[in-house]
Amino acid sequence: MNDLEAIKSRFIALRGYWRPWTESLLQANPAFLVHYAEYAGYPAQTGPLSARMVELIYVALDASATHLYEPGLATHMRLAQQAGASEADIFDVLHQVTLQGVSAILHAADLLHEAAPLPALPDGDPLCVRIEKQWPEQAKRLRRLASQDPGYVSVLLDFAEGGLPEKGLSDSERLLVRLALHACFTHGDMASVRALINQGLALGLTRAELLQSMQLGGHLAIHGAALGATVHAKISQPAE
């Protein structure tokens, strides 16, 4: 086995795939793949989360509307199933992906509330009770939104609870998926990350589990290099 073949074999062992863009990088800059494989593989292989949980988080990140990377989604959905993820687990993750957009509404509604504040709903209001029970880490912000549009918050909570598949993720697993989605550079909602960290610790998740969830999204930036390598290969072909 020559050096390039060894690099390819090591990459596949660590990342679980080989694609045209990796082949282009192998030929043009093999050192990139050597070190990228170790960098990208580190959080998946050294943290406390199970292979099933790691792959489910990758499914969330690649399916996210802020990323939409179908080749990676197919790879990680298959690996998640091989690691024991059920169909309910997969669709629970996709439910969390759909809820990712709520944080932007909360940010925007907070700005509107600052400009034109409304009285808060009373603590005993049934909608406030639902908010505190279903979405405690965002309770303050949801209550501010509810004072502006209670109907919207009501149907949002209906979807957040009623849209879940039966026998899907645990509350802690669901939080890890949401944390990864909000911490990833493609979304980068640090206010939600802070709230999710505190909620995760309250649920009994460890620092290492929370950190691993956040680290898994960093190397998704490779898809910029993948696009660049693909375009380079196309323009480097001799004109017919």
Summarize the structure.
The chain has 240 residues and is mainly α. Helices cover 72% and strands 0% of the residues. It contains 14 helices and no strands.
Topology of this structure?
Layout: H1 3-15, H2 20-28, H3 30-46, H4 51-63, H5 70-82, H6 87-99, H7 102-115, H8 126-134, H9 139-148, H10 150-162, H11 171-183, H12 190-202, H13 207-215, H14 222-236
Note down, in words, how this protein is organized.
- It is a single chain.
- The protein is mainly alpha-helical.
- Helices cover 72% and strands 0% of the residues.
- Helix 2 packs across helix 3, helix 4 (51-63) packs antiparallel against helix 5 (70-82) and helix 7 crosses helix 9.
- The longest helix has 17 residues, at 30-46.
- The model has no long low-confidence stretch (mean pLDDT 94).
